[in-house]
Design a protein that fits this description.
heterodimer; A: alpha/beta; 7-stranded mixed beta sheet; B: Dna Ligase, domain 1; 4-stranded antiparallel beta sheet; 16 helices; about 25% strand; flat
Chain lengths: ~1100, ~500
């Protein structure tokens, strides 16, 4: 009986209560969507449906992977649904001499598939090893297995051989080889009845094999999706996998929608003639259920402490050593108290090994001079400060480690370590060297379909042309609304009435969230005591020597496996470079060059003055436009203000509506009061407004009577709010009921819940904010006192941050830095500071198209021979550089020190000969570049932009100034004049578009920043205006706008009501590629 | 040169003119290949993504790029231009708007030297050509100059749609034009612009040796060609002849035999001409000229190009026999309007050809006869598709359009499908015990049969879009009279249909 398409799974509780009595059938062949582009249901959906259908057990047998089992395991645990862990092995046909030629001719012969299920932990280790072995011998994302591999790892495994759609003799041979290896009744033969074209024939052939080889048959249903209506999506997935269009999918598409989870009754009816096959499924499931993922136990590596010592002892010793260095005048009493308290906790929870692992990595980085900083839940402990993992002095910030490591929930602590982004590789190499390639691997990151990729792939499979798909996914403003605006679609050149269009949108929504492939996590490393591939399959990444496990971060959390996050942070690179440059300058001045991260003077009022002026371009975290609007309102005056500053401009606090109450209270416009002492204790630091994730958790514990365990569940639900929204509703009731029961008013309870739900959007933990705030201060200090070094460091660490080099340079110049252009005789590869004048000399890395290796040769040649006087001399003395490189440098006007402008330099370079003519080498013809046409100033600037993306000569807008003046367009700087342009006055402005943003929290409002030669202006565009002037606002690289001035404190916005794009002649020099749009 | 839709604005002035975009597809991506001035005014330009163009100009009509129509069209125009000068050439210079993916000839070079006085001067000639082109519906830019290069430059980059310059003013006329007007490749133009050379006058100030060293001889050659320092010639366009043979009678002939005999002679003549060129005729035209000028014309299409006289005669003869002779025929003209290359074959060795080839020939001959009897669109052939859906596997398409039939991409045994598929399926009355069980009796076409043997079900979901879903259970049944039929049970409404028969 085919079920009619039903709505998705029924809600959780209902499905359990209305479950039919458990029937004697277990589904053993099930692919989830972790068999990429084959399965059309999430593992969770499959488990829910299996529970609903009343199956005895459900196996997840993804093809050559265990990537989906942990998710299925978690869902199954929740529903008490028995889960069989399994895998479908796709193996190559064994090469046999008889078939050798046919094999060569038909390389793409269908793989042999065998389902395997571990019966014990040892069996599970075998599956992991088998998969690892198949994956490590080939490239990323592939798995190459043969029957021999399976035979090698066959112990403790149950197997079901799955005949191909059309039974072949080759498969019978495989059966004959498998039969003896699994001889103690561990092998079965799968029989599915999905009403296909060859069913009768298959039945006959498989039945015959079963009888002849005495292999029992087992009923399976080759499940690809939980409910039949997913067939439509499965068709699309097949087409995406084969790179074809649905109308041409032909026989690759399934004929029908039978491969869903069927009820035991239905299976019994289908297999009425062979009840033993149905019964066999239950038998196999029962034997396989002897293994459960619960049995996997993580073990810390053992080499973390010297032999003869316990981990805890070693940790205590190291910590006290560190404490004495941190506090040379003697460890303060409260730190001693905290340390002893933390030791107790770490000992009780057995986390010593974790802290030692992190300490080891940090120590290595320090020894190599790699700047690093820890952050995260456990990082702000006194232990971490003493071990040198963080630089946040526990006495400066009052954070109790217990808030992050609770005794009740026994989960691994969380420390992320940020390293300089260009040197992280060294740290990773160290890990592989120390623990060996078998014991270290990166966590996987499951790349899922997002809006863009979903629309693109589904669109292609449905036969839309690529540009239509691009257009649709690129301009998907309509997606959030959920409905398509026909007018907008027509504008994109698409027909909204087309049913295929409707289908595209429905299917794209459905495919959203489907895993597409495994990628590597940004830096989550797993280190184990024994070989990793006994615990989880390991596969190659695109980078040679780097390996990943198949599970992602959530899976690892669920399995209780330790993970160390080794992350790359561009700002750390910039800070290290800036400090190096400052030290070089100090040495040049004859002072000591010993500035270091922790010797930067704390709480410098000049730094806070600068931040209060929103003068923060380039400063870590607070350089975005939203932060720059916040700074003058929050007016940070101390370190903890920066912690709040970092955390407050996040979607969480914004959606939870916490920003304005906080600001009002801070400015004394609103009284700060607390319902009671308990809440005062939690919220006092942030004036009664929860701003940090930890506070949300503490709040529910204090006010709604949550246990720490429940609070932790809440945190997880918040993190996964987007994925499983219904969980939050469960907590809503619990919070409001819990709080009213404790005497809080229902309205207050609801307000608290809304704030907590806001964190689901993206809350920021205080522990992270504390570490980030430190870098905010350091980078602000550098910007304030050493603007040239800071700017050079930022330029050398590109790409990073929020601004383009052009803006960084303009900002530095505004702070009095003298900026020298790229010059072939004076520049290094990186930008440098020229002492003793302290001018910033741009490096050759700023030049588009200049190759580093060749530039280094030029620099080396200049060092050895001194400055060159002509391109020909440079060319003669520097072998191995290409003319194209010189031309790139010439385009950037880097030959000024030879007395050649851009044109003259290119003219000279074009005449360079590969083989110099010896006779004429010393008698060059008099320079003939004087015949070249002169260029106007604006052309020079445009050429600068084309070569480097900025110009030190003039701002492009300045060439339009006289025309703009005639039209009454004022310079951007003028709007700062409060008298001339008060709040509400109307102005016309013009500028290059720097940034276009549409924050998810702003209800479709677009923020743009435009810049002219006098400064920037911040534009606010409401959706109707955006729609009306879409062409200009979306595509133009330079704009003229009319708008209303909106002032709040010192922040000025322009509310736009009209917009035009600046004349086309402007777009020639690729300035249009400069703005950063909607990321 | 661009062409207006002929007479559009003349006939219906009230209707607004819509912009037109021609879209070419490269790697499943659609680009603007050409656009009309209206679309260009809206910001559309060649090589732009079509969707971007559609966003800029939503009301535009988008037509597909048909590369093969341009060459014949410009050839026709070149032929037409022969009225102004016998020396006409299709411009071989690639144009920058071709953008690498939609190349097409776009201009004509006419050598009018010595012809001007016939028209009253060069300027008058230009105006005449323009007017004549306008009458055909073309908007054209024209220029006349003493060299091909300078005329080209002025026509493509000059300020005015009609330009004339004499040798004395040549330097001045070209000075302000962009360097691309010298017919230089795009890469060289970009290279020149890096040193600020963007106009032709910039080049003329620079010593030749400096240019030669840096940009090679091609640049100098193009400059010299434009300024007339080296000679550049036109290779006149010659018309590819239509093969044609004819027979004139001495006065009107009314006897069919005479005409047939004459025609047969002509077929042999044409055939030997075709064979000499190793070509076969795809379309033939036979014309019986009548004294009353009501010529009787018949066109004949062939499925594959044919050159053998017997084959041609075989097709031609029935048509001739049916043609109206009226008061007599003065002449017969036989033309091969369209030809295509054929592989040469030795006629004497015909008997050793493999049998399959002969059979294929017979089939082609049959097809040729049928399409010329009923018309080319009336003859359908099965066009097998790899699909589970019976209606798709049994799809038929016109013989003339069929290329080689696609091979099934899945290497599976053929599906068990009936030899006759009923279209549409015929309703039947059946009784089955369970929804997916085969019926015991079948009532169909007025009869009622017991089912003696059956196989199935094979479940097929032929339509699976969101709005339209159907599930069919197919059964292969043997009826009591021995026939095998293919029936299906529509699961949505419970109705039964007979969909095919094994014959």
């Amino acid at each position: 009986m085919p079920e009619l398409p039903e709505p998705r799974c029924k809600p959780l509780m209902e499905s359990i209560s209305s479950r039919p009595p458990p029937g004697p059938y277990a589904e053993l062949q099930v692919v989830s969507n972790f068999s990429f582009l084959r399965g059309a249901s999430h593992p969770e959906e499959l488990i829910h449906r299996a529970a609903e259908a009343g199956l005895h057990a459900l196996a997840i047998t993804d093809i050559n992977t265990l990537a989906g089992v942990v998710r299925a395991f978690c869902a199954a645990k929740e529903l008490h649904m028995p889960l069989v862990v399994g895998c479908c092995l796709h193996m190559q046909m064994p090469p046999s001499p008889a078939r050798h030629h046919a094999q060569v001719a038909n390389a793409a012969s269908p793989p042999i598939s065998v389902l395997v299920y571990p019966m014990s932990l040892a069996g599970y280790a075998n599956v992991c090893q088998l998969l690892t072995c198949g994956k490590r011998r080939t490239t990323k994302g592939k798995c190459l297995l043969t029957i021999d591999d399976l035979l090698q790892f066959s112990s403790q495994l149950l197997a079901i051989a799955v005949p191909p759609p059309v039974p072949t003799d080759a498969f019978a041979e495989v059966l004959a080889r498998l039969r003896p290896a699994f001889d103690d009744d561990r092998l079965s033969l799968a029989l599915s009845r999905t009403c296909g074209p060859y069913d009768a024939w298959r039945d006959r052939v498989i039945g015959q094999w079963s009888r002849e080889m005495r292999i029992p048959m087992v009923a399976v249903n080759d499940v690809h999706y939980h409910l039949p209506h997913r067939q439509a999506l499965q068709d699309v997935l097949t087409c995406i996998r084969l790179g074809t269009v649905r109308s041409q999918g032909g026989l690759h598409l399934a004929a029908n929608a039978e491969r869903h989870i069927k009820t035991p009754a239905e299976m019994q009816r289908l297999f009425a003639d062979m009840p033993q096959a149905v019964h066999r499924s239950v038998e196999i499931a029962n034997r396989a259920l002897a293994f459960s993922l619960d049995q996997i136990k993580y073990q810390y590596p053992s080499e973390l402490c010297p032999p003869g010592k316990t981990m805890m002892n070693h940790l205590v010793n190291l910590t006290w050593q560190g404490a004495r260095q941190r506090y040379p005048q003697g460890v303060p009493q409260d730190v001693v108290l905290r340390l002893t308290h933390e030791f107790e906790l770490i000992h009780d929870l057995n986390y010593a090994a974790y802290f030692l692992t992190v300490e080891d990595i940090v120590r290595f980085a320090r020894s190599k001079g790699i700047l690093c900083q820890g952050r995260g839940a456990a990082a702000n402990s006194a232990v971490c400060y003493c071990l040198g993992i963080t630089a946040v002095d526990p006495t400066r910030i009052d954070l109790l480690v217990e808030r992050f490591i609770s005794r009740q929930r026994n989960e691994p602590p969380d420390i992320d370590i940020d390293f300089e982004h260009q040197r992280r590789q060294e740290v990773i190499d160290y890990l592989y060297r120390k623990y060996g390639v078998d014991r270290v691997a990166l966590t996987a990151e499951v790349i899922t379909y997002r809006r863009r990729s979903a629309l693109r792939d589904v669109g292609k499979a449905l036969g839309f042309s690529l540009d239509a798909v691009d257009q649709l996914s690129g301009a998907a403003d309509w997606w959030e609304k959920g409905v398509i605006d026909p007018r907008q679609l027509r504008e994109l050149g698409l027909n909204p009435a087309d049913p295929t269009m409707q289908e595209l949108i429905a299917l794209a929504k459905e495919i959203q969230g489907f895993p597409r492939h495994l990628s590597q996590h940004v830096g989550g490393f797993i280190i184990t005591a024994g070989p990793l591939h006994h615990c989880v399959p390991v596969e190659n990444t695109a980078m040679p020597g780097r390996t990943i496990i198949e599970w992602d971060k959530d899976d690892i959390d669920a399995m209780g496996i330790l993970k160390v996050d080794i992350l790359a942070l561009g700002m750390l690179s910039a800070i290290r470079r800036a400090i190096d440059l400052v030290n070089q300058g100090r040495i040049a001045d004859g002072k000591d060059g010993t500035l270091q991260l922790h010797t930067i003077p704390p709480e410098d009022p000049a730094v806070y003055d600068m931040l209060c002026r929103a003068d923060s371009i380039g400063v870590f975290q607070v350089e975005s436009r939203a932060q720059m609007t916040m700074l003058p309102r929050l007016k940070p005056r101390c370190y903890y203000d920066l912690v709040i500053e970092v955390a407050i401009v996040r979607p969480g606090p914004i959606v939870g509506d916490m920003v304005h109450p906080y600001l009002r209270r801070r400015n004394g416009e609103e009284p700060v009061n607390y319902p009671d002492e308990k809440i005062r204790k939690v919220l006092e630091r942030t004036l009664g407004v929860p701003l940090f994730q930890e506070q949300a958790m503490a709040l529910v514990m204090a006010a709604a009577g949550f246990t720490p365990d429940e609070a932790d569940q809440l945190r997880r639900a918040m993190a996964a709010w987007k994925r499983k929204g219904h969980l939050m509703e469960k907590f809503e009731k619990k919070i409001t009921v819990g709080m009213t029961a404790r005497g809080y008013s229902p309205s207050y309870a609801q307000a608290v819940f809304n704030q907590i739900r806001g964190f689901g959007e993206y809350g920021f933990p205080e522990s992270h904010a504390a570490s980030f705030a430190l870098l905010v201060y350091v980078s602000a200090w550098l910007k304030c006192h050493h603007p040239a070094a800071f700017c050079a460091a930022l330029l050398n660490s590109q790409p990073m941050g929020f601004y383009h080099p052009a803006q960084l340079l303009r900002d530095a110049a505004a702070h009095g830095v003298s900026i020298q252009p790229v010059d072939i005789n004076k520049s290094q590869w990186e930008s440098t500071i020229e002492y003793p004048h302290g001018a910033l000399r741009l490096g050759m890395s700023m030049v588009h198209g200049a190759s580093r290796a060749e530039c280094e040769k030029i620099i080396d040649s200049v060092r050895r021979h001194g400055p060159f006087s002509s391109p020909a001399a440079l060319w003669r003395m520097t072998p191995g550089i290409r003319r194209a490189t010189l031309q790139s440098l010439a385009s950037a006007d880097a030959f000024n020190s030879m007395g050649l402008d851009r044109q003259a330099a290119i003219w000279a370079i074009k005449n360079l000969r590969d083989v110099p003519m010896p006779l004429f080498a010393d008698h060059p013809r008099p320079s003939d570049h004087s015949f070249l046409p002169p260029l106007s100033a604006d052309q020079l600037v445009l050429h600068d932009y084309a070569a480097t993306g900025f110009s030190l000569k003039a701002h492009p807008m300045s060439f339009f100034r006289s025309q703009l003046d005639q039209r009454g367009v004022i310079p951007n700087a003028d709007i700062q004049n409060q008298v001339q342009f008060p709040h509400g006055s109307r102005v016309a402005l013009a500028g290059l578009v720097l940034v276009r943003q549409r924050p998810a929290t702003a209800k479709g409002i677009i923020f743009m920043t435009i810049e002219d030669e006098t400064g920037v202006a911040n534009l606010v565009i409401k959706p109707p205006i955006y729609e009306k002037f879409r062409r200009a606002l979306r595509f133009a690289s330079a704009l003229v706008i009319k708008g209303k001035v909106e002032r709040r404190d010192v922040v000025v916005h322009i509310l736009v009501y009209k917009a035009w794009s600046l004349p086309k002649l402007f777009m020639h020099a690729q300035i249009n590629s400069q703005s950063r749009d909607f990321h | 040169m661009s062409r207006r839709r002929p007479g559009k604005n003349a006939r219906s002035p009230a209707r607004p003119r819509l912009p037109i975009i021609i879209a070419a597809e490269v790697n499943r991506r659609q680009y603007v290949a050409r656009c009309c001035p209206l679309a260009a005014a809206a910001g559309v330009s060649p090589a732009m993504d079509i969707s971007q163009a559609a966003a800029l100009c939503p009301q535009a009509q988008v037509h597909p790029w048909q590369p093969d129509i341009y060459q014949p069209a410009i050839e026709k125009l070149a032929q037409w231009a022969g009225r102004f000068s016998p020396r006409v050439m299709i411009d071989p210079t690639p144009h920058e708007i071709d953008a690498g993916f939609a190349p097409a000839p776009h201009g004509l070079l006419i050598d009018a030297s010595g012809m001007e006085h016939l028209h009253g001067g060069c300027r008058v000639l230009l105006v005449r050509i323009q007017q004549a082109l306008a009458a055909l519906g073309f908007t054209a830019r024209l220029a006349a100059a003493s060299t091909i290069g300078s005329a080209w430059a002025l026509a493509h980059y000059g300020a005015k749609p009609i330009a004339y310059t004499d040798a004395a003013q040549l330097l001045q006329a070209l000075a302000h034009l962009p360097i691309a007007a010298l017919r230089l490749p795009r890469a060289m133009c970009e290279s020149l612009s890096t040193v600020g050379i963007v106009q032709i006058q910039h080049l003329t100030c620079i010593p030749r040796i400096s240019l030669l060293e840096r940009f090679g001889p091609h640049l100098l050659q193009r400059m010299d060609q434009s300024y007339g320092r080296v000679h550049e010639d036109i290779a006149p366009f010659t018309i590819r002849p239509v093969l044609s043979v004819s027979q004139l009678f001495d006065g009107p002939v009314t006897q069919l035999e005479v005409i047939l005999n004459a025609a047969r002679q002509l077929v042999h003549q044409l055939s030997s001409q075709l064979m000499d060129r190793q070509r076969g005729a795809e379309t033939l035209e036979v014309r019986l000229a009548r004294p009353d000028h009501q010529d009787n014309i018949k066109k004949i299409s062939l499925v594959r190009p044919v050159c053998q006289p017997d084959r041609i005669w075989d097709i031609l003869r029935p048509s001739l026999e049916r043609m109206h002779l009226g008061s007599g025929v003065e002449a017969i003209v036989l033309k091969a309007l369209r030809t295509a290359p054929v592989k040469p074959r030795q006629a004497e060795m015909d008997h050793v050809l493999p049998a399959t080839d002969a059979a294929a020939d017979d089939l082609l001959q049959l097809l040729d006869r049928l399409i010329n009897h009923w018309g080319p669109r009336c003859l359908l052939m099965p066009d097998p598709q790899a699909s589970h859906i019976p209606e798709c596997t049994g799809r038929k398409s016109p013989v003339m359009n069929q290329g080689d039939s696609p091979a099934s991409e899945v290497n599976w045994p053929p599906l068990d499908r009936p030899s006759i598929l009923l279209d549409p399926p015929e309703p039947a009355q059946c009784v089955a015990l369970q929804p997916d069980h085969p019926p015991h009796r079948l009532g169909w076409r007025g009869g009622n049969y017991a089912v003696i043997s059956q196989a199935g079900p094979e479940r097929i979901v032929p339509y699976r879009t969101l709005t339209h879903r159907q599930t069919r259970d197919y059964f292969k049944l043997q009826l009591e009279d021995g026939r095998w039929v293919w029936v299906y049970h529509a699961r949505e409404d419970g109705r039964w249909f007979v969909h095919g028969l094994w014959g």
